[in-house]
Amino acid sequence: MTTARTLDSKQQAIVDAAQVAVQSRGYWATVAGRIRDDKVTIVCGLVVLLIVFSAVFADLIALADPYKASMLKRLAEIGAPGYPLGADEMGRDMMTRLLYGGRLSLFMGISPIVIALAIGGTLGLVAGFLGGRVNMLIMRLMDVFYAFPSVLLAVAISGALGAGIGNAIVSLTLVFIPPITRVTESVTTQVRSLDYVEAARASGAGSLTIIRVHVLSNVLGPVFIYATSLISVSIILASGLSFLGLGTEPPEPEWGLMLNTLRQSIYVNPWVAALPGVMIFFTSLSFNLLSDGLRGAMDVRL
Amino acid sequence: MNAPAQSTAGGASALLEVRDLRKYFPVRGGILNRAVGWVQAVDDIDLDVLPGEVLGIVGESGCGKSTTARLLMHLIRADAGRIVFDGNAVRADDAAGLRELRRQMQMVFQDSYSSLNPRLPIEDTIMFGPKVHGVSSAEARERARELFALVGLDPAQFIRRYPHELSGGQRQRVNIARALALEPRLLILDEAVSALDKSVEAQVLNLLLTLRRELGLTYIFISHDLNVVQYMSDRVLVMYLGKVVEIGPTAEIYQRMQHPYTEALLSAMPSMDPDRRTETPPLVGDPPNPIDPPPGCRFHTRCRFAEDVCRRAEPRLGPAAGEETADGPAAGADHLVACHMRVAASGHSLAPAG
Amino acid sequence: MLEYIIRRVLYVIPIGLGVTVLVFALVHMSPGDPLSAVVPPDAPEEMVQDLRKAYGFDKPLPIQYVTWLGRVVTGDLGVSVARGREVVDELRIAVPNTFILAAGGTLLGFTLGAIFGGIAGYFQGRWIDKLATAIAITGVSVPHYWLGLVLVIIFSVEMNVLPSIGMGPGGSTAWAWDAEHMRHLVLPVVTLAVIPMGLITRTVRATVAEILNQEFVQALHAKGLFQRQVLMHVVRNAAPTTLAVMGLQLGYLLGGSILVETVFQWPGTGSLLNSAIFERDLPLLQGTILVLAMFFVLLNLLVDILQSAIDPRMSRQ
User: Fold this and answer.
1) Is the alpha carbon torsion for A52, A58, A62, A65 positive or negative?
2) Is B346 an interface residue toward A (CB < 8 Å)?
3) How far is B142 from chain A (nearest CA, A)?
4) CATH 1.10.287.1490 corresponds to the domain A95-302
């Protein structure tokens, strides 16, 4: 095994914690207890819920139509009557569009992680459980993807496929499959070598049954927490693609795209132009703090 | 290796018959990560296990005891050799045959914690094996309750607990119950009590002996603890660097050992009896590197009787020759040893004349 | 250790080949005829066929790949469709510009990160640690393209003290060490520095804290050694990890500067990619991605080797 495949510090922390998880008593109870005591993590969890909630129920909360333009109200100031957060370059209500924008931004940020979790998780499980040549084939393939900085890979694939939400999701999924595969493979390799997996094999169970009953339950937790730590990056990247014109297309409200179109107006009304970025920032920050909290709680040495 | 014309158990028909079993592990290195050497973990060993007996396997750590256990369970694939269980030879690629074999043969591991899935209540762990073999959930649950009682755990109290909620001894009882859930005939106990406290160890050993009597089980009992092996076993097999150096009835091995390694091993064994203090020095140094085992007799580098012939030729396992040995009368026919000193006219100065 | 280095160097070959396959596949994944950018829609069928032959698009893909790879190896990345110039020549201008940005960003981010991380790790658990940690997490959470925009709003729009776009006066595309170019560098470099700053703060903080908790350092304290000597120990032990993170960050910034370059209209590889994508200039897209990825692969190699040379624990392998 070459050291070209070393894990970064975040991944290593997950793998180390997983090792503790499968070996120590009462592990998850301790983790839950730690999270209960961690106010920052709980608050961030609530903020994440609030953001998701307001995006999902945007049509109930928002006061205006996100597509209704008005020549007169173009780039209205923050606090203008009827426009609490001003209006964009076409005179559409910013607050409404920011609320609606969360739908696409969150969807484009989270769905690649979910898909990558399914694909990368499966690949990592297979590679880790079977080992040998299959492992080598899968992990070397991942190494090739690792040869690209993530932004470059996302832009390259999106750029080749062309603009559009679907293409952006495909490209981001491809960006996140390799790291998830790596972490899953490491954790699975550890679990596989434990005696209870040997004992299950000794009782005559097939590989699929062993994976389902004995491996999955021990691998899923750490991998899931690792995946949540990628959501923040994914949201930034997804909005970044839209910002470049590679993701969502006008007139859809989406934070990155809004930032792009408002960019032309920074000399007229700079602070309205900066608003969509504030949303991206807070969302990504909350997800980051939340996953940090989860990871910190997991890092229990007993 | 010679053709195993002769049974290591002295002729009786064996439950498990192993011939020429071999496992080498590659040592990788170099620029291309090729195998640059081989650890000869298990090298052409023969053994027989008789129905109903307890065969103890002893040796220093790294001598290949655990590898042998895993080979017998087909948890790792042997490089060569034949494993015949109850007259049926099972090939490693015969899935149905393996399944059946694994029903008849089960294993208890050393680490009571890592051999239980921390995510499953122990009841589910015990039910897992029977369900794999097509037993219905209800029936498997019923069986699990019986097994709990059998290994001395109150079903009502323990059945829904998780491994971390049990003590080491309780966990090892669960592991024994899990192994018994498939109603096996042969149980391999790989250092199964080594990690337990002495008092708990005794309880579990007695449980094992009771179970053996009540269920008519056969055990392969692997341990580095010579006292425990003596207490448990009918026959004892001594391994050194992947080879069988001596095998025979427990009393024979402990009182009329034939191999200098066995002698050294036993002399290092703490004894309560001041009259049985040894004059021979215990083993010195570590076993040689198994990656590159010495030619000839593998023990010659640490053996105080080593001569030229030991460095040249590998001794074969066979009945000890000679009328009298230093320690008493000649060994019985079921007592085999691999040492040039015990082969007539082998070329060793201490060998009996041919 | 020599063995490790040789193995590590050799491993670049399959990875490099994999990268070329991926980059080649990328272009053939893209929808539409690769010729559509060159050929006017009303071109006669005969001309299209001739061009197809001339570009080799009529051959099976594996052969096209081998032919393309053969040219790439000799340094021929083809001709930009939209600009009509050699891709290599375009890259010759753009890569150094991006490198200036990435190196500046890494250096600034590293300096700030080392300071914040060092302080935070040294004063573990105090308010100053919490502040530094907050800065770090902000750094990794902020969408840097937005941060760039905010900096432009503050320093160009509101205060009017720094230029908002370009690399130098009059749309300069060649770097010069003069005051004007430096002024143009400030905002993009600060923007880019935020990401490595966050990550390096975290890394350094964790490493310093871990080292200070180690027994040998506490023993040094107990022996009454001077703070400065303890500090030297910390630096020597924290260096390998920090170096690795820094090297990788330089690579990420090289490949990831496209967003920042777009905000500041910096004439580097990011702008090249941007125009290649929107003009469907496939040779330019292919060439730029390939060169950036190869840089990243080699940088990774360099980091691994340097790390194994510095860190005695690594050389066992």
Assistant:
1) positive
2) no
3) 18
4) no
